[in-house]
Write a structure and sequence with these properties.
50% of the residues lie in helices and 9% in strands. By secondary structure, it is an alpha+beta fold. The chain starts with 5 loop residues before the first strand and ends with a helix.
Length: 214
């Protein structure tokens, strides 16, 4: 069977943490894909001519032949089912409970911790920006992140569930919003984020934003 044609749509700055999650997933699967961009600042994603207009009008958007899918967690779960292990690399743990926990972590990172996301945008990571000290709300959000991440990593291993999973990348990115700004982050969590950030698929995405900025 021939491989489908895959196209990933990103923001033109490559700042989106959700695009990054899908990009890493495609890289880990070893799937060839075309990368295209849409300029969010100019509102290109809100124009009816864009492929994602009929979906959620957001990035990431993944096209698989004539099928288009938006929302990063939906895309990565689809990829892990469509290009399933063991033929393709695994994005989610084999164990059912660990797989459910991985999805829980991803959903939490996408729906909570808003003060961190607002006060430490991904431009801190990908463009080297520095932001003002955290507000009280930001400090409370950071404390919640640290408590939860510390509990998840209390086993002392470098990955959440033994072998790497996609939630490792997502959690590392959230922690690095603070690390890259120079905020105080518990050493164990900073080390975990640094280890995850060296993964080849992650570094390929980081290089995209660095090239754009340069």
């Amino acid at each position: 069977m021939s491989q489908p044609t895959l196209t990933l749509w990103s923001d033109s700055d490559f700042f989106s943490p959700y695009v990054m999650s899908v990009y890493v997933a495609l890289q880990e699967k070893g799937l060839p894909f075309t990368l295209k961009t849409v300029n969010l600042d100019q509102g290109e994603h809100l124009q009816a001519g864009w492929r994602g207009y009929a979906a959620t009008r957001r990035v990431p958007l993944l096209e698989v032949d004539d099928f288009a899918l938006s929302e990063s967690s939906a895309i990565t779960e689809y990829l892990d089912e469509r290009f399933a292990p063991p033929e393709w690399e695994r994005l989610y743990p084999h164990d059912q409970q660990k797989r459910a926990l991985t999805r829980q972590i991803q959903a939490w990172l996408r729906s909570d911790l808003m003060p961190i996301r607002e006060e430490r945008p991904t431009s801190v990571i990908f463009a080297g920006e520095k932001k003002a000290p955290l507000t009280e709300a930001g400090r409370k959000s950071a404390a919640k992140l640290f408590d939860t991440a510390s509990a998840l990593l209390a086993h002392g291993r470098p990955n959440l569930f033994g072998e790497w999973c996609l939630a490792d990348t997502d959690l590392a990115l959230m922690l690095n919003r603070l690390v890259f700004n120079g905020d105080d982050v518990p050493e164990q969590l900073a080390d975990y984020a640094a280890f995850q950030w060296q993964r080849a698929s992650v570094q390929r995405y980081v290089a995209l934003s660095a090239k754009r900025a340069g």
